[in-house]
């Protein structure tokens, strides 16, 4: 239980906490049920918050470190807005926590991986048939099977490009836990992924919307 864990670590010390749990799925906004939104918020966002709050007394006591798994998808979305939403939220939670923990000597780090779908298996290949069968009648009246198939093919092509070098992300997590001077953010991504994040930060939203819309139409 939580109380048993806290008692155990109170006696032996507690150095670091890594919030790594996460789930992903594909689908346009109206395709996903409210239950699915609640599930994703519960696992990806509230799960990390619950764990952090439980161990915060020990982390303050031992001047420990807290590591959160975010994603570059916190900056933009390409068909998985529900995942992007939770990662953007966890980033803001971390930003507040990092500033508040400075006075206690607790360091907060965020890992921002690029596409490592082939390493983590966080997202299985998308089935257009399954998506279509789960759509409400209202959504089926707006979209058609061909469109859903195109979106599924697009997303599956992104998944297939994922890096298999998952050790790169693990190395960043280790550095965040052990470095004398850890970074606030570790972006572990390909150059083109980093460039896209940079563009999102630099250019007006209307420009990035055009770029991303063009990418989605390919």
TrEMBL record:
Alphabetic keyword roster: Membrane, Transmembrane, Transmembrane helix
SUPFAM superfamilies given in the database record: NAD(P)-binding Rossmann-fold domains
Pfam families membership: adh_short (PF00106)
Listed transmembrane segments: 66-83, 195-216
InterPro entries noted in UniProt: NAD(P)-bd_dom_sf, SDR_fam
Lineage: superkingdom: Eukaryota
Keyword Transmembrane helix carried by entry: yes
Record family assignment: Belongs to the short-chain dehydrogenases/reductases (SDR) family.
Name of this protein: BDH protein
Annotated organism of origin: Scopus umbretta (Hammerkop)
